[in-house]
Amino acid sequence: MSSPILTFGLGLVLLVLFGFYLASDDPRRKRIVGLVLTVFICAFAVESFLPLSTKIRLGLDLKGGTSFLMRLVTEKDDKGETKKITPDMLDQAVETIRKRVDQFGTSEPVISPQYPDRILVQIPGLTSANVDEARHQLQKVAKLEFKLVHPESASLIPQIEAGTAITPPGYRIQTEKSDKPNTPGIKLLVKQRPEMTGESIKAAYPQFNGMAYSVSMEFTREGTKQFAKVTGENVGNLLAIVLDGEVQSAPRINGPIDQGRAEITGQFTDVEVRNLASVLENPLQTPVAIDDTRSVSATLGSDSIRSGILAGLVGLLVVSLAVLIYYRAAGVIALVGLVVNMIILFGVMSLFNFVLTLPGIAGIILTVGMAVDANVLIYERLREELAAGKSFTTAIDAAFEKAFSAIFDANVTTLITAAILFWKATGPVKGFAVTLTVGVIASVFAALVVTRVLFSWLTHLGWLKEVRMANLLHKPNFDFLGKRKIAALISITLLLGSIAIFAIRGERNFGIDFRGGDLLRLSMTQPVAENDAREALKMDDVVVQKETSGDKDFLQIRGPFDSSAKITKTLQEKFPQAGLVSVQNDRVGAVVGKQLAINSAIALGLGMLGILVYVTLRFEFSFALGALVALIHDVVITAGVFSLFGREFSLVMVGAILTIAGYSINDTIVVYDRIREGLRSGRKGSVESIMNASINETLNRTILTGGATLFSMIGLYFLGGQALNDFAFAILIGILVGTYSSVYIASPVVLWWSKIKGEALDRQIKKSDTTQIAVQH
Question: What is the pTM of this model?
Answer without folding.
Answer: 0.76
